[in-house]
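Batch manifest, entry 17 of 40.
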Amino acid sequence: MLAGGRHRALAERYEGWRVDERLIDGVLKAPLRRESPCKALLKLAESASLPKPLVELRRALARVKDEAERDAAVVAALVLCKALVKNAGAYGEWAELYKWARSLVGRQAFTVAAGDIKRLHEAHNGLVGVAGRVLEELNTVLTLYSKSGFYKEADLKKLKSLLEVDLKRAEGLAEANYTRLSDYSDVGMGTKAYAALLSIARGGLYGHAAMLLMGEGALADIVISTPMGTYKKAKRIAKGRSEAVDPSRLPKGAAGRWEDRAASALLHYLLGSAVNEDLKFRHIGEGFEVFKAYGGVEAHIDTR
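Output type: structure tokens
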């Protein structure tokens, strides 16, 4: 299952793993009831049938001993889950656009209408927006906790250090290659949650790894593990499917390898285009020549 298929699987699974938003909010707002988010989650598990991401979160908490870290893991994973459930359609739409791009690149020549380029930009903005909603939700939760009076000052300070998003480091992690993942071993859980969704939107390695874990419902592993740890877990999942964490790194000759790389390159090119006219593409080797059309007259603008 390659790039477009992973987006589709993500959409379908989180559509199926829907949970009443009020239940998640009830856990996130537990400090208002003088209760920790971790204890609220464990109580919820006793009284309700939980979707896989929440079941996996409950299991993962056994690996975390510090109370502040357990609460932070619950908050970061639930905020991530809430964002994926509420915005599953954004990933489904991107999967359809990827399928559309893949159908084009096999042709010797094809035209992309200005309207399709606009639709692509809007869909991509939707993916980036999902990450933005995680940032907003985390900030809202931390403000609520600061006002609740539930946490001691030292515990609140630790929670903030774990859940506040470091935007600069999140940007770096979202675009990091394999050799740079270890540079982000000390980032907090909130930063990892935000960076994972941002990296998915940008086609980064961390996003590819996160999607594999998200597809297994392992949201807690993303926020608890280091980015390199997330990558290694994703690699084991990918290996079991005869895939690669980064679809562009599939072994030479793997089925569909060229089409997937070409589709990704086409989408990347179109996202970088501010052109308001139709574009015509012609194959040259494994690349493209790109033309604008002016009343039946073509003007060469690029070679990729």
